[in-house]
Amino acid sequence: MNDRVVDEEGGAASDPGLRDVDFDNLLREVLNRVHSALDEQERLRLLLDAVVTMGADLSLDGVLSRIVTVASSLVDAQYAALGVLDVGQGRRLRTFVHHGMTPVQVSEIGDLPTGHGLLGLLIDDPRPIRLHEIAAHPASYGFPPNHPPMTSFLGVPVRIRDRVFGNLYLTEKQGPGDFTTEDEAVVVALAAAAGVAIENARLYEEAEQRQQWLSATAQITSLLADVTAEDDALEPLQAVADQARKVARADASWLVAGADADNLMIVAVSGLQVDPAAMRSLSLEHSLANMVVRTGEAMSVRDLAADPRALDPAAAVGGQRLGPAIVVPLSTRTGIEGALALAWFPENAYRFEAVDPAMPASFAEHAALAIQVARARGDQQRLAVFEDRDRIGRDLHDLVIQRLFAVGLSLQGAVRRSADPELAGKLSQAVDDLDDTIKDIRRTIFALGSLGESDDIQAEVTRLVDRAAATMKFRPTLQFEGPVRTLVAPEVAPDLLAVLGEALTNASRHAEATRVEVSLTVGDEINLTVVDDGRGISDHVIESGLGNMRERAHKHGGKLAVHTAPGQGTTVTWIVPT
């Protein structure tokens, strides 16, 4: 029998089950389901639009800001934030990008969260979390003063491949109710798309950083190509340190160079407010730079102060303590020119993690090659100068001195033939003047051969003493005390060498000494002392050479002291402040 009911007029009666349903409630339920379907379609459309727009931004900061804005709109959250995890062992929040709070609220709250409490729970266990009441959760620490009230909560991790990049936090669901499972599914999908967008942005930034390293290499090469022998030798080295620090976003950088690993010193510093002379005087015997120069391999540490192999140059001279560091060799085919160090303060350790060590290593290799080429070109230019000096010296010796000597002999002959005592005296004075002139020319010839523009003052002093030994038939003793290479300023070095050359010449030609002692002591002042056991200086000797030495001391705010007695030798002390 059919279950349908026929009315009196023969028409079909309504279904018994529907007669008991309120038509208004039924219509309301249908409309709610229709609106829910439309809302779901709208949210999916917004999610698709969000994925497309996130991929259009190539800057990492722009992507992060767009993610929190889109997430807030998708699930109707009043507040949204994205916490980026630090790469260190602590795994706390390094960056906190937020949306929904006014600048006034942010300033009143103070420091942004670093990943403790409920935020830390999501870091330690990266799985989605939905809460009705934040304060009711056992991991909640509560809110700081002036923090806006927040109740409902939705947290989702953001992954890049298998690694958690950060967490997406949403609070204060707008309208009645809490965040739903549909909200969670949408945010999880958004987080997955955000991971791809973040990875693309990071790859773009890495490509940009490689481009910056290549550009810095080109600038250094161009700068060193224009260096001449007359230029300051430290200027291109300072440029290398400055460029490396800028591109790596480091807080400090320094260049280490030396003849070998046992004679290293810091020749350029960038980013630290320290005394360059104090940095140059540091002993690098126990340092990463020393190890890098010896091994030729790059090294990195997470904390200079905690690593027993490392030296923190900033802390050693009273500056702020540095944290992680990268040290790469300045290597060429012929050997290691030195080392380049990059360092960051502990609070900026994330910048250290973002640097690919291969980039500064490649930059250092190109910089070392450019420095080597510039040095070779400078050597050629200096060689040309030395050749000109040698030619001038030969001309002065073979032509000018010989002619003056011949004139002096003629005047001496005229003195013997002269019957007028007054004329004979004037002729003798002229002969003495010619003799002094010849001495001055000989000193000039000696200076032309000795005043080379060497960066190593200690080597130049040694070379002068060795050259004097060939004339004296014995080698003077030589003693150094203090940081001679680092504290003798470039503007003082030529005068110091000239004074030493003059003192050695006097001891060789006039003192008839059998023993000469040379000592160079550098501390608060530069003290050059030359002692001989010769016949001493007569009271009637005209101070031509000594006058020049005294003038060179006064030029630098120093003094010249001469202690002598007939038959008891001479002590010449030349002192200028450092």
The level 1 CATH classification of the largest domain is Alpha Beta
As a percent range, the share of strand residues is 15-25%
Structural class: alpha+beta
Q: How many strand elements?
A: 15
Second rung of CATH, namely the architecture of the largest domain: 2-Layer Sandwich
**CATH fold node name of the largest domain:** Beta-Lactamase
Unreliable runs: 1-15, 17-21, 34-38
Number of domains: 3
Mean pLDDT: 77
Count helical runs: 17
CATH superfamily of the largest domain: GAF domain
Portion of residues within helices: 40-55%
Q: N-to-C terminal Cα separation, in Å?
A: 122 Å
Cα radius of gyration in angstroms: 41 Å
Shape: elongated
Could you describe the largest sheet, including whether it forms a barrel? 5 strands, antiparallel
Strand line-up in the sheet with most strands: 2-1-5-4-3
